[in-house]
Design brief:
Blueprint (H helix, E strand, L loop, with lengths): L1 E4 L4 E3 L3 E3 L2 E3 L3 H12 L5 E3 L13 E2 L9 E2 H14 L3 E3 L3 E5 L5 E5 L4 E4 L2 E3 L3 E3 L5 H5 L5 E2 L2 H4 L7 E5 L3 H11 L4 E5 L9 H8 L4 E4 L2 E7 L6 E6 L5 E4 L3 E4 L3 E3 L30 E3 L11 H21 L4
Parallel strand pairs: 3-11, 4-5, 4-12, 5-8, 12-23, 14-21, 15-16, 15-21, 16-17
Antiparallel strand pairs: 1-2, 6-7, 9-10, 10-11, 13-22, 18-19, 19-20
Helix pairs in contact: 1-2, 1-7, 5-6
């Protein structure tokens, strides 16, 4: 089937026939691989450019069942990967760059040009947080800078934090943080929020939540941990420093679904649509799991659960069609 294989590359000679192809390697992808392997679907999993997904840039994970003392995100994904390998998953450290869902078996190509024909495809490409793009943001990632209040807010109990954003997500996460933190500063670039009226009312009526209108972030301060944030009023250019120990970015997520445009149904923000309560897409044999289709929960445990669902749906689909 192929000439040479290693952890980083594979050179193939001909079109490869697969029962189950999994695209993505976060909690959804690895969980799908575990279930698909145990169902003898002989899954091949392509990790994508970020093996392990967003959890590989997350330090402490304390809200995933089964880890009572918490666990580092990269180690957690290593555990998921090793469990998938234990049951026989073929993990390949490449990206899928092209698909053709107009034919069956479904055609897929990797970044090296390798062509595959799959009886089923499970999409677990996830979504990536949008960042402000300032150097200090990356420097202090997981040292007080976070893109998930639900994930990391617990670590800032009783402290003063800032959060940037003006939509429903920012409003929801700001009010969530206000339940845990001494004070929350919400930084809104315009003189109004994009959030729904009810969410705006919750923000305004939260006593320990202060909104800074017409405000942009200049720099997040600190060396080994966040100890402040410098902000600027976009109308007056005046600057001030807020003494905070946490900085949350809530300006949205971008689902990694570009290669499926034109093939699968998406919402206005490019999240993939599935049959309600299932993982089926409009294309037979194609299933979606994790954050690629979830803009609401975005948690490791919900992604893993949907990965399980996708593998079970794929197995039942193949069995019903007499393909396994």
């Amino acid at each position: 089937m192929y000439l040479c294989t290693s952890k980083y590359y594979t050179i193939y000679m001909s079109t490869e026939k697969l029962k189950c192809l999994i695209i993505g390697s976060g909690p959804a992808g690895y969980t799908a691989a575990i279930y698909a392997s145990r169902a003898n679907l002989e899954p091949v999993l392509y990790t994508g450019k970020e093996p392990g997904g967003q959890l590989t840039i997350t330090n402490d994970v304390e809200n995933y069942p089964g880890y009572p003392e918490g666990i580092m995100g990269p180690q957690m994904m290593e555990d998921f990967k090793n469990q998938a390998l234990r049951f026989g998953t073929d993990i390949r450290y490449e990206m899928i760059t092209k698909v053709d869902f107009s034919v069956f078996p479904l055609k897929v190509w990797s970044e090296t040009g390798h062509e595959m024909e799959a009886l089923s495809v499970i999409i677990a490409t996830g979504a990536s947080a949008k960042w402000l793009g300032i150097p200090s943001e990356q420097k202090l990632m997981n040292k007080g800078v976070s893109a998930c209040a639900v994930c990391d807010g617990f670590f800032f109990r009783g402290q003063e934090v800032a959060i940037v954003g003006g939509g429903d997500t920012a409003a929801e996460e700001a009010t969530y943080l206000a339940k845990l933190c001494k004070k929350v500063h919400l930084l809104v670039r315009r003189d109004e929020m994009r959030a729904s009226k009810i969410m705006q009312e919750r923000v305004i009526n939260t006593p320990n939540l202060e909104v800074h209108w017409n405000t942009e972030t200049v720099e997040i301060l600190g060396e080994d941990a966040v100890n402040g944030v410098k902000i600027r009023n976009v109308l007056t250019s005046s600057e001030q420093t807020l003494d905070v120990t946490g900085f949350f970015v809530a300006i949205g997520h971008k689902p990694n679904t570009e290669i499926f445009e034109g093939w699968l149904d998406m919402d206005d923000n490019k999240y993939l649509k599935a049959v309600p309560g299932r993982t089926h897409t409009k294309i037979e044999g194609v299933f979606v799991s994790g954050d690629a289709s979830d803009h609401i929960y975005r948690q490791a445990v919900t992604a893993a659960g949907s990965g399980c669902m996708a593998a079970l749906d794929a197995e039942r689909y193949l069995a019903a069609k007499g393909l396994i």
